[in-house]
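Minutes, methods subgroup
Present: GH (chair), OT, SY

1. OT presented the first of two proteins processed in the latest run. Sequence and structure tokens recorded below as shown on screen.
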Amino acid sequence: MGKKIKLGILGGGGDSLIGILHRVASAMFDKYELVGGAFNIELQESIDFAEEIGIGTERIYKDLDTLIAKEKSLPEGERMQVISVLTPNFLHFSMAKKLLENGFHVICEKPMTTTYEEAKILKKTQEKSGSIFAVTYTYTGYPMVRQMKEMVASGAIGDIQKIDVQYYQGWINPIIHNKEERSSIWRLDPEKSGISCCIGDIGTHAFDMIEYVSGLQVKEILADLNYMYEDNAMDIDGTVLLRFSEYVKGVLRSSQIATGEENNFSVKIYGKNGGLKWEQENPNYLYLLKEGEPMQTLKPGHEYNSAFSLDGTKLPPGHPEGIFDSMGNIYKGVAKAINGEKIYDGEFPTLEDGLRGMNFIEKTVHSHQQGNVWVKIDD
């Protein structure tokens, strides 16, 4: 086995769900070694957390500037090579930009930035640096999502006619109806979260998924968002009509007030000769529909799947794989890119995906604010 890639993490300390997801994912294929970072705002909390998860504290830093200065003072072969940015949204841009400018590879949580303009600046910075940049649209790492992508591309369902994607959660419902509570969480604070909550948080996952599995780009959108209360500045629910072309259209439904829902993310693509359906809460099943034929169920690990799907499958057929595995596949793809290995098209979401995600978020809010009108998505 080759030398492991040295990984640093910003944020993700304490009981952060996203923190443990990234740490487990990075360890999954023995490609990375977590060597330090800045897990919390308070240095002592970061040190305590490092001790708790069993890594040395000599490379735990009080802030990003200290991390960059100290790491760049080390011999090149000992430095952190890639940094994962797991902080709240408003810190993504400044941190990622500074890391790129100093020669680090970056794995960034979504949304990549808080504005489309920031995303365009980041794109130019990355092009100049030559660094690898991944945005963790996690669900693209599922083996059966990758199988879906390959089947669409191979013409298994014919020319696409209709796309329907839904991402429903209910976690904001008990918060939004309490004025004090809804004023206290960062996801409903525009200063920390950006211009959108629901679309920015989970709608962007749905948007990326649509373009990923279909191979098409959304050209125009019409959005209708719900803010629930006049004093709430952030959308918590929305429906977006999509135009891919004159004859290919779709709908994106996203909600965080779908009472009782946990993480109900599903994507359906219908073509001239068949359809494909996938649901995140049952990720091992990809359903193939054909006119006049029984529905087929495809599962991971079988030889009938594509090489890309099998490359992301770690267990024999019948053994469930989950979100840790999906994120692990993204980290694996980034490692292959850093090491100069051959990668499949779509092994990890790129900065370009993050850029389009920010474009979508802003255009969705703009469409709603202008009275639910059609607006163009930039090429």
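2. SY then presented the second protein from the same run.
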Amino acid sequence: MRIGIIVDSACDLPGEFLEREHITILPVTVQIGQAVLADVRNEEATMNFLSGETGARAFEAETTPFTVQQVHDLFLNKLVLDYDYVFCITTTRTRSGIHDNAVQASYTILNDYKPVRAASGNNTPFMLRVIDSQNVFSGVAVPVVEATRLRAAGETPPRIRANLENLARHTHAYMVAPDLNYLRNRIKKRGDKSVSFLSAALGTALDIKPVLHCNQGETEPVAKVKGFANASERLFDFTARRVKSGLLSPTVCLSYGGPLEEMRKLPGYDRLRETCAAQKVEVFESFMGLSGLVNVGKGALTVGFASEQSGFD
């Protein structure tokens, strides 16, 4: 059985991994004033788009996920021909409309695929399953990597589905953003209350950085640390402890809103990499996608992994 995987462009994974595993991207379109770019996870295009005046107004960005019709057309024009079963893994429905659009499209896709496949000489059934990752950024990446491992191991679609849905419930993403004013302006535009105005003002004045946590679609601050480097080190060291305690999937995903060389110079990074190597945990490092950057600002760091343990220490 040919199993396909499709993700939205807010999933932070390296481009070479996505290409090697033949993972299809659902682009998110970003508009800032008159400037428009479809996020297809191109680092150079993203940084060019966020330069100059456009970048200064990034917090005003409007993001538009693939519509129901666009998802429907992508499947019927390509995916129902290339695969027999497709897993569509999306950013949490509490933060993006792509999940609900994909679910709505799935109904018409399953009604319309038969003549399309028959025209290519294939009369076998086609199935798809939309999986809510219940997470954001590098957190979305964790079940995607697991899906590729299960596919390579020859697991059946029902077992893959059950594993992914369980993993999503236990996947945790953590983020440290360097610019609280930007983050506050952006989440205010989105109607979010993760960082209050007072917290942003005090945090900026005192150089206090919150560590934000996402699990099961809910986001909240779990720590406040003075200085971005210190907050990043605390997050890296915390992740290393979770790795030593045992993860549900041998995967840690990192993403950064800038050149990865900058992330690799942050304190605690080397210790985390050494811990992962010792525990045989694979690390995926990715430049943050455009839709993520306009939501949290340049220079943000995110870490994703799956663990039965909760809490930040």
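Chair's summary of item 2: Residues 98-119 form the longest helix (22 residues).
Next meeting: continue with the remaining queue.
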